[in-house]
Amino acid sequence: MKKFTIETLADIISWIRNQVEINNSPGHVIEFIVSNPDLGIGRYSGELNSKKLPHRSLKNWQDLAEYLDCRLLLPQPVDEMWVKIRLQIVDKNEDWHHQHFPDKSEKYGANSTYFRINKLEEPTFLFDYTRLLQQIQIKPGWRVLNLGVNKGDEFVALKNVMARDCFESLELTGIDFSQSAIDVARNRFSGKNHRFICADINTLANLSLGQFDLIISIGTLQSPGIDRQNLLRQLVQAHVGAESALIFGFPNSRYFDGEIKYGAHVKNYSEPELSLLVKDIMFYKKYLQQHKFKVQVSGKYYILLFAIR
Ligand SMILES: C[S@@+](CC[C@H](N)C(=O)[O-])C[C@H]1O[C@@H](n2cnc3c(N)ncnc32)[C@H](O)[C@@H]1O
């Protein structure tokens, strides 16, 4: 079995790439032996460990797997000094973008692959989103709107960070054009303080919703059918008040075969391309700043734009 000792990371990547070329089929496992990451605790990547070998942490191997479209299987200790790294090639065609639904509004519905995703089980999203919810200091009785609510995960996170009586005093409104997702969301929340509306976000003006203290929209605003300029104008003119907060989330990742890969995906580009994402975020940021919001941008696999007056 291949064993790496003093080689550089570039040498290792070149060897792995070669292995992928030889057998590029989903599920194939590439194995090699490297120095035990625990021998280099406190060392930076490539710095010599206690056995005078370049240190590479588990995070290094995880990052490398992600960039090479592999998943890191559990490394196996060989002895105190060496571990076997196992990278499994993932199936890049195994994602919901390849699923066809005659009714386009069901692309993210209960029968879609997307529906299996739970962002509240992803550490980076959970940390970033929860931190913003805590920063806002939501008050009893607030009206909260979620555009593209799907099965209601963002409301679940809200429930988890708030005292029960305060959560129950909120007035929650979720909108999505997937009827099956809305049905699941309705069943998930038992209180009377919520309503889930099956409607097109482009027609908000017809829904007589009034003003909200917090507006959330995660992974929805850049959907192809949404007129973002009109929507943002409509939100600012009709649905935000003097002290409202907004949280907009933009995917900077792609899901396939159970994995998440960093970087916004753009049609016809095989590699991540962030220009459109950056342009979109700057559009929202500038518009909101012009309307007297203070805007922060954070996040990793999801870029979260947080705006408050
Ligand atoms: C990528 S999903 C995000 C769902 C959820 N916010 C999350 O982050 O898991 C986008 C959601 O927006 C909904 N959606 C997209 N365009 C819409 C539109 N024009 N009107 C209403 N809902 C829309 C989809 O049905 C889907 O549930």
Strand-residue fraction?
25-35%
Strand tally: 12
- Average pLDDT works out at 95
User: What is the strand arrangement across the widest sheet?
Assistant: 6-5-4-7-8-12-11
CATH topology title of the largest domain: Rossmann fold
Shape: elongated
- Major sheet description: 7 strands, mixed
Number of domain units: 2
What would CATH call the homologous superfamily of the largest domain? Vaccinia Virus protein VP39
By CATH, the architecture of the largest domain is named 3-Layer(aba) Sandwich
State the end-to-end CA separation: 60 Å
Low-confidence stretches: none
Percentage of helical residues?
A: 25-40%
Order of helices and strands: HEHEEHEHHEHEEHEEEHEE
- Name the CATH class of the largest domain: Alpha Beta
Mind sketching the topology for me?
Layout: H1 9-22, E1 29-35, H2 58-67, E2 70-77, E3 82-89, H3 123-136, E4 143-147, H4 153-161, H5 164-169, E5 171-176, H6 179-188, E6 194-198, E7 212-218, H7 228-239, E8 240-251, E9 253-256, E10 259-262, H8 275-290, E11 294-299, E12 302-308
The structure holds S-adenosylmethionine (SAM).
Residues 108, 119, 148, 150, 153-154, 176-178, 181, 200-202, 218-220, 223, 225-226 line the site of S-adenosylmethionine (SAM).
